[in-house]
Design a protein that fits this description.
about 280 residues; alpha/beta; six-stranded mixed beta sheet; five-stranded mixed beta sheet; 6 helices; about 25% helix
Length: about 280
């Protein structure tokens, strides 16, 4: 099996019949995040991310961007991921920050927050949406047909989901519908961080005019991550929360939900959809 998929024993039951079999399941494992800064002698541990292995450098870069720690790749000297020697620690990602990063703004020790839900979202706030404003050109318009086609394009790239049915996915598409990045992960927010990190590494943040497409529902943090990355719109297969809608409107993002089988609802930026 690859590092994203594992084999698990399973007992399949159908009515009065049962049989022992094997099933493919998504991998979830810890990644400890540490950072160092030239102005500080010690290495700081920011937390533990429960993630699906793969694109770990992008995951870390996207997370640090969302946290406001790095803005461009000029703020990063290196990102090193090494296999962990202890099971309870797992793999370790160490980021060496450049002197351009304000070391006084770094978060304190967090006591190893462990989550696959939202990275290190403790520092995220409504006010930080302001950081994403003004990055894009005037709000672009999108055709209804183009928006309706994006979930299928996302699904085409969900190879691990096809095997397990247990992973979320996110992708960034440019205004012409070309894919910038796609990632899968057990955590919805991790998948978004991975694609933002990939775009950051490629020099495409702010991702002006781009569309973030996600396989599940949309909560506030996903809107925030998209806004901070400079995206113009979010298309979700699932439902948005009320706070996600408010945040999208405040940030000037188009927000589309329930995008399935050629149908979708527009919750923010309704005037930007063309027929």
């Amino acid at each position: 099996m690859n590092k994203q998929v594992a084999i698990a024993a399973v007992k399949r039951i159908a009515g009065s019949e049962s049989r022992v079999d094997q099933d493919l399941v998504a991998v979830e494992s810890p990644l400890t995040l540490t950072v160092s800064h030239p102005a500080r002698a010690t290495v700081r541990t920011l937390g533990v991310l429960m993630r699906t292995p793969g694109s770990d450098q992008d995951l870390v870069l996207g997370l640090l961007h969302a946290e406001g720690i790095v803005r461009t790749m000029a703020d990063v000297v290196s990102v090193e991921v090494r296999a962990g020697e202890e099971a309870d620690v797992g793999d370790v990602a160490h980021v060496t920050l450049a002197a351009t990063v304000d070391h006084d703004a770094l978060p304190g020790e967090r006591g190893l927050i462990t989550t696959s839900a939202c990275g290190l979202c403790g520092r995220l706030s409504v006010q930080s949406l302001d950081r994403g404003r003004g990055r894009s050109a005037p709000a672009p318009q999108f055709s209804a047909d183009a928006l309706a086609s994006l979930p299928a394009l996302l699904r085409d790239g969900q190879t691990a989901f096809a095997e397990t049915g247990g992973l979320h996915a996110a992708a960034l598409f440019d205004g012409s519908g070309q894919r910038i990045a796609l990632a899968e992960d057990v955590g919805r927010h991790n998948a978004v961080d991975k694609v933002v990190g990939a775009a950051l590494r490629a020099g495409r943040v702010p991702a002006s005019g781009s569309v973030l497409v996600v396989s599940g529902r949309v909560a506030f943090e996903i809107v925030q991550k998209a806004a901070l990355a400079g995206a113009a719109a979010i298309v979700a297969v699932g439902a948005p929360s009320n706070l996600a809608i408010d945040a999208a409107r405040a940030a000037g993002l188009m927000l589309v939900g329930f995008a399935r089988d050629g149908h979708f609802n527009v919750y923010a930026g309704m005037e930007r959809v063309t027929s």
